[in-house]
Design brief:
Layout lengths: L13 H14 L4 H9 L5 H7 L5 H13 L3 E6 L5 E6 L1 H19 L7
Antiparallel strand pairs: 1-2
Length: 117
Amino acid sequence: MTTLPGLPATPADHDDCRRVVRTVEIIGVRWTGAILLAAARGARRFRDYRAMVPGISDPQLSLRLKDLQTRGLIARTVIPSTPVQITYALTPDGVELITALQPLSHWSRRHPPEEKG
């Protein structure tokens, strides 16, 4: 049996598989990856996310941001001003997840999806 560099020679156990499935379920929800990427590229306010994630509706963006907050990947900050400002930024866990996803992003640039039709 050969293993990939940096990976242990032991097979994945049940807990390893469960953790990977849970992570894929988080990032696999429509728009979530794009929202995290927008946060990593400097989006702060709701309108910034909307501009950086083409095609997302306001209700869907609001729902995804709330979910990412619940999961501890995005922090929501209310700035008391007139009018009140609300910003969203990656938490340390969100930064760690984006860092882990960067190789996938690089891979996707080298292997674009084939056009169907």
